[in-house]
Design a protein that fits this description.
The protein is an all-alpha fold. It has 12 helices and no strands. The chain has helices spanning 2-22, 37-56, 60-84, 91-115, 130-156, 159-192, 197-234, 239-247, 249-261, 263-267, 271-295, 298-325. Helix 3 runs antiparallel to helix 4 (91-115), helix 7 packs antiparallel against helix 9 and helix 9 (249-261) packs parallel to helix 12 (298-325). The longest helix has 38 residues, at 197-234.
Length: 328
């Protein structure tokens, strides 16, 4: 209830700001899509806590159905006008349509949750203030760090090399994202509901071992036969993408292990530490890309980028393990 009401309040404030901008002399028609922002925020503010509620009650079928239909509607609405009406694609409108359909599927759960009587009617978000206070900026830093890679590489290297990196990263990160997202949600729920330290340790180390075993196979394949596989699947012109996959294999492998387990930092409320970690990580990641670009060697830029990412992933894993060992 608190999350939904907070989303309504925040979106209302943003709607007032957006309306003021719309009526101001600085408004330009090419920025008209910005007017969708308040609606998107309020839809997401209803969807996200409901999905978290579904995760808590293990309603995974509802989560998967909602996400699959959202993705389908988003793709259809975004791309169909390109073929029938205009030469444009409506990405923002498609995203809003996907959110709306997802919300329509979740309305019964939202209604049930809102209508359920709770022991306390206190709607204050003060007990959770550290999540928006530190978590928002931490997520922002992580997003900047992740998405700035392409722009920095584009400053120093040819579009062909940057395209190879983009293709490789999207192709590899897609299945990794599916695994880490699903396991991370389940781990977040079970870790927050662990009844004693021993149960939490057993859960964490068990997932760590399983993910390590899962990661060994794709990492080994990428290191040994990455270029050959990419050439076989996509043609000789994409052999370079396989080389990049080889350079970044250890980063992908360690990310597969640590991403779900890092949920424990949020469970334990170490948000200040997470913000500092993401700040230092972003600084070193961007810095090493700039140094590699000034050096002018794309191969070693990728290797150095992977090395820095692996070091930070391992450090994060050590911190999570320490959290579990010191649990009391």
């Amino acid at each position: 209830k608190k999350a939904i009401i907070s989303a309504i309040i925040i979106s209302g404030i943003i709607a007032i700001i957006t309306f003021g901008y719309w009526k101001s002399p600085w408004y330009k028609i090419e920025y008209s899509t910005l007017l969708w922002i308040p609606l998107s925020i309020i839809l997401q503010g209803w969807i996200q806590p409901t999905l978290s509620y579904c995760n808590r009650i293990q309603a995974y079928k509802k989560i998967n159905t909602s996400r699959i239909i959202q993705a389908l509607v988003m793709g259809i609405v975004s791309c169909l006008p390109f073929f029938f009406l205009t030469d444009k694609i409506f990405l923002i409108e498609g995203y809003i349509a996907g959110q709306f359909i997802s919300l329509s599927l979740l309305i019964p759960l939202i209604y049930k949750n809102l209508s359920t009587k709770t022991k306390s009617c206190n709607l204050s978000i003060q007990p959770y203030i550290n999540f928006p206070k530190y978590g928002t900026f931490s997520t922002l830093l992580n997003t900047i760090s992740r998405n700035s890679v392409i722009y920095i590489l584009n400053l120093f290297f040819t579009p062909a090399l940057v395209g190879l990196y983009t293709f490789t990263n999207r192709l590899v990160q897609a299945p990794i994202g599916l695994i880490t997202s699903s396991i991370g949600q389940a781990y977040f729920r079970d870790a927050s509901m662990a009844e004693n330290p021993q149960e939490l340790r057993k859960l964490t180390f068990s997932i760590e071992r399983i993910l390590a075993l899962v990661a060994i196979i794709p990492v080994s394949i990428a290191l040994l036969w990455g270029p050959i596989i990419f050439e076989f699947l996509f043609g000789a012109e994409w052999r370079g993408a396989g080389e990049i996959a080889r350079y970044l294999a250890l980063w992908y492998g360690t990310s597969l292990i640590i991403t779900p387990l890092s949920m424990l930092i949020d469970v334990k409320g170490h948000l200040k530490w997470e913000l500092a970690y993401n700040f230092v990580f972003a600084f070193f990641r961007i810095g090493i890309l700039i140094l590699g670009g000034l050096w002018g060697d794309f191969k070693w830029t990728m290797i150095l980028f992977c090395t820095v990412s692996v070091i930070f992933n391992l450090y994060l894993l050590m911190f999570v393990r320490q959290l579990v060992k010191n649990e009391n």
